[in-house]
Amino acid sequence: MRGVLTEEQEQLGAAVNALFADKSPEAAVRKSMESAEGYDRELWDQMAEQMGLFGLAIPEQFGGDGYGSEEIGVVMTEMGRALYCGPYLSSVVMFATALGAAGDNDAAARYLPAIASGATIGTVALTEDKESWEPEGVTLSARADGSGYTLHGTKTHVLDGHIADVILVVGRTDSGISLFLVDAADPAVTRTPLPTLDRTRRQATLTFDGARGRLVGIDGEGWAAVARMLDVAAIALANEQVGGIERVLDMSVRYAQERTQFGRPIGSFQAVKHKCADMLVALESAKSTARLAAAADADGDPGVSALADLSKSVCSEAYSRCASETIQLHGGIGFTWEHPAHLYFKRARSSEVLFGGPSHHRRLLGERVGLLPAR
């Protein structure tokens, strides 16, 4: 049945869950989010070498395992539950997907095996000052100069841009939107970490002042690969949000059973029961849409873009609502730095706007199914 995990996928989820329970508990998450890099390199290497998590969706010809969005969704769910800090979404999902979708086998053969092994961290630089996730927002200029391209412009809110080894930059040439590989060590690239609400997912502003870029794919035809990347990333993020919802619901139910007032657990009060029940309904709706979208992508369903929009919209609103309710149910302790509830709330809010907020995806969905005129 579509959207139902196989035994193998459940085993994958259990293994990833056990890894994070052992190597990335709350204390480790707090340590990682306060570090300069923003992640635990030792855990990153273990995920690559012992678990093989980075090559799941990369084709076998490029050093991967040839699976797809369902397996990525399983891993992302556990990452959301554990509040994992690390460049998995930016490197394994975004960079690898966009590079693979560009149809440039030489570039894929050069970079994807290193992404699969964890030796190289990649990211995609798309949004600019207007923070648009659509082609109109791309203004960074790329000019051919005989031996390559020279890039001028600024990208903002680049996931893990401060630590990436290679950057896939979305720029504009005379022919249209194109993709360019840029070495992050290029002296013409300035990387500035951004202060963010959610310290578990780092972002940076990247300025390209004459940086050298290698064209990926066909000049002027880069947006198709970007659109593919946005669909896959939205589905992956939706599954991560499901893991976060499961965690905050579990926290709420446990607290409702343990916390007493007037000589009885607060979970026995009808208002608290209703809140937990509403969170469960939100979780099941989010889980259904996220898993359905992942399964549709794995099956090559032509309607996957609409399902990606649906899952991102539903899961974003559900996570933000449930994270907020968790803080309310915990009362005063939920607002304190010592309690993890606020960390999940911040992740929920940052994830809600990443790749476009719910209203953005509802508009896209309406256009795709013919309820709204295409812009």
Strand portion, in percent?
A: 15-25%
> How many β-strand runs?
9
Number of helices, where a helix is a run of at least 4 consecutive DSSP H or I residues: 11
- First CA to last CA: what distance? 36 Å
Regions with pLDDT < 50 over 5+ consecutive residues? Answer: none
Order of H and E elements: HHHHHHEEEEEEEHEEHHHH
Main pleated-sheet profile:
7 strands, mixed
Mean pLDDT: 96
Class from helix and strand fractions? alpha+beta
Which term fits the overall shape? Answer: globular
Q: Gyration radius, to the nearest Å?
A: 21 Å
Helix content: 40-55%
Short summary of the structure?
The chain has helices at about 5-25, 25-35, 40-50, 70-80, 90-100, 105-115, 225-260, 270-300, 305-330, 340-355, 360-370, and strands spanning about 120-125, 140-145, 150-160, 165-175, 175-185, 190-195, 205-215, 260, 265.
Task: Please characterize this protein's 3D structure.
The protein has 375 residues and is α+β, with helices and mostly antiparallel strands. Helix content is 51%, strand content 15%. The chain is built from eleven helices and nine strands. Strands 1, 2, 3, 4, 5, 6 and 7 form a seven-stranded mixed beta sheet that branches. It is globular and about 80 Å long. The protein starts with 6 loop residues before the first helix and ends in a 7-residue tail after the last helix.
